[in-house]
Design goal:
Elements: E1 34-38, E2 45-49, H1 53-56, E3 62-66, E4 68-70, E5 74-79, E6 85-95, E7 98-104, E8 114-117, E9 122-129, E10 135-141, H2 145-152, E11 178-181, H3 193-201, E12 205-211, E13 234-238, H4 240-251, E14 256-259, H5 261-274, E15 280-284, E16 299-303, H6 310-319, H7 321-333, E17 344-347
Parallel strand pairs: 1-17, 3-12, 3-14, 4-11, 14-16
Antiparallel strand pairs: 1-2, 5-6, 5-8, 6-7, 7-10, 8-9, 9-10, 12-13, 13-15, 16-17
Helix pairs in contact: 6-7
Length: 348
């Protein structure tokens, strides 16, 4: 089926997914999930387990890891004046103790309203309403904000995960360290410390970058013509050390393989902005869909994405539309597990 690159439609990226294939819990151990391999030139598909990724990598390759760490950003509390229940979702840290938050129900969070969380461990006052109906709030507490958040906050799991998460660390990668994401860079959830050690021992280099994943990653595409879609913006940092590793990999004939669409977007945003891979920081709203010319990466480790999402558009740009839509059909037939806690795909 030919794809009209000048008139890409949201419906081009639809596929039928039975609900029971949406993973509700992560598998144990992390690297025992399934792994589909997809050759982007031929469309050839292979079926493995994630620990087999070791055999798919060559000495001199480089894995680009997003070391962002998820905030336990969902807070449940009460309105001081009435005792009514309220939910806060931390979106962006503005300055000091001021955050932009999503509140529910919104009508309870008028400017001047005060709220209490964790039996008084944290309090908040609404300062004003900003665009999208979000609120700017000032928190007050005794001690360290992030330590208190670890005690009373909950992981902001995607809406399609209904099961309760028993251990918050299972929604973090084992290499996460820079706090700031509202969602996990989920392709990295499959790695264990032991697997990373084996990968390094094979001669594969690891480059660490940071992109803080925003909740916009779950925002559905609501327009039919995808070029009318407005991408959310996310903050990234590509340090010089990572740039050196990536450039050395290129010079010695290795492959640059992004772990996750967040790492992919960071690399391609830097390549577009700087004209090369070098130290860079900023905000990116890069939108990658078929027709996009990749400049920075050769391969991608990723999960299986929602129908009609910007993420399935991204993988279609890298692996080819027909190859991806066929791979997803096969994944459904073979009962792969989908989305954040699901199985993985290696596009090479």
């Amino acid at each position: 089926m030919g794809l009209d690159l000048d008139n890409l439609k949201k419906s081009d990226f639809y596929y039928d997914l039975p609900k029971e294939l949406i993973a509700q819990t992560p598998v144990e151990p992390r690297d025992s999930s399934r792994l589909m391999t997809l050759n982007k030139k031929t469309g050839e598909i292979g079926h493995k387990h994630f620990f087999d990724i070791l055999d798919c990598l060559n000495p001199n390759d480089c894995l680009v890891l997003n070391d962002s760490r998820v905030l336990p950003a969902r807070l449940y509390g009460i309105k001081e004046e009435t005792g009514a229940k309220v939910e806060f979702l931390l979106l962006n840290h503005k300055e000091g103790d001021i955050w932009e938050v999503l509140t529910g129900p919104g009508r309870r969070a008028k400017p001047g309203s005060r709220f209490t969380f964790g039996d008084g461990l944290m309090k908040a006052e609404v300062l004003k309403i900003v665009e999208d109906g979000n609120r700017l709030v000032r928190f007050s507490y005794d001690g360290n904000f992030y330590e208190i958040l670890d005690k009373i906050g909950q992981m902001p799991l995607p809406h399609y995960i209904k099961a309760e998460l028993k251990d918050n660390e299972r929604y973090q990668t084992v290499y996460s360290r820079e706090v700031g994401s509202a969602a996990a860079p989920t392709a990295g959830l499959h790695f264990t410390e032991e697997l990373l050690d084996k990968i390094k021992a094979k001669g594969v280099k690891l480059a660490r970058i940071t992109l803080h994943v925003g909740l916009g990653t779950f925002r559905p595409v609501t327009v039919e013509k995808i070029t009318d879609h407005k991408m959310h913006s996310e903050h990234y940092y590509l340090p010089q050390k990572a740039a050196d590793i990536i450039n050395e990999t290129r010079q010695t004939g290795g492959r640059v393989i992004a772990v996750g669409t967040t790492s992919c977007r960071t690399l391609e945003a830097v390549a577009a902005k700087e004209g090369c891979i070098r130290e860079s920081a900023g905000w990116t709203d890069i939108f990658i869909y078929p027709g996009f010319q990749f400049r920075a990466l050769d391969g991608l480790i990723t999960n299986f994405h929602l129908p009609e999402s910007t993420l399935i558009m991204l993988v279609s740009a890298l692996a080819g539309y027909d190859h991806i839509m066929n791979a997803y059909r096969v994944a459904v037939q073979e009962k792969y597990r989908f989305f954040s806690f699901g199985d993985a795909m290696f596009i090479y």
